[in-house]
Amino acid sequence: MAVKMRLQRKGRRKRPFYHIVVADGRAPRDGRFIERLGSYNPMTKPATIEIDRDKAFDWLQKGAQPTDTVRAILRFKGVYYKRHLMRGVAKGALTEEQAEAKYQEWIDAKESKIAARFEQTAAERADLLAKLSGTPPPPPPAPEPEEEEAPAEEAEAAEASAEGETEAAAEETPAEEPAAEEPATEATTEEEKKED
Fold it and tell me: What DSSP designation does 64 have?
């Protein structure tokens, strides 16, 4: 009897939800199963995965073959990492305590990453809802001006450049006035042509 670890589809149309089960390979997809290991909801962001790691590890040790999706889920949840560490224990490279410590450290790091992703998604959703409701976002904190004492030479150079900019702006203004008059003359000539 070929035992497989696979997904069993639940949920309504266009809203899938899956149970992770151990079943006979000959049984139908949503049919009879041996044991339920957990659940997988791909509709949330990030996907919600709940699985009993110890049961999944035991079934892997007994020879159950996971499907590709379940294999990815088991990798993501650390079941394959535990299997790797236990092979090291069997070969004598690690002790049982060292393997458990490494495994627990890996699980803690992974869970903190997942929690951070959930928080980020919640913050993005709150921002979206705030934009949709029309409430303005809170103003960003104003940067504190840095007051540094500049030497007298730098202050004089700044004043001179400011005077030069005002003179340049004054020179540019008369040049712009004739340009404004030209489109008006073109418009009058078009009006005269229409009258003829």
Answer: P
Q: Are 46 and 121 in contact (CB under 8 A)?
A: yes
> In the predicted model, what is the mean pLDDT of the chain?
82
**What residues contact 57, with CB distance under 8 A and at least 6 apart?**
79, 82, 83, 86
Task: Please compute the mean of the pLDDT values over residues 152-159 and round it to a whole number.
Answer: 61
Q: Which pLDDT belongs to residue 143?
A: 79
DSSP for 82-104 reads HHHHHHHHHHTSS-HHHHHHHHH
Tokens of 57: 């590890």
Number of alpha helices (DSSP H) and beta strands (DSSP E) in the chain: 5, 5
Structure pTM?
Answer: 0.63
pLDDT band with cut points at 50, 70 and 90 for residue 134: confident
What are the helix (H) ranges across 135-151?
none
Residue 74: exposed, middle, or buried by beta-carbon count in 10 A (0-12, 13-18, 19+)? buried
181 alpha-carbon distance from chain centroid: 55
Phi-psi group of 86: left, alpha or beta (phi > 0 → left; psi -120 to 50 → alpha; rest → beta): alpha
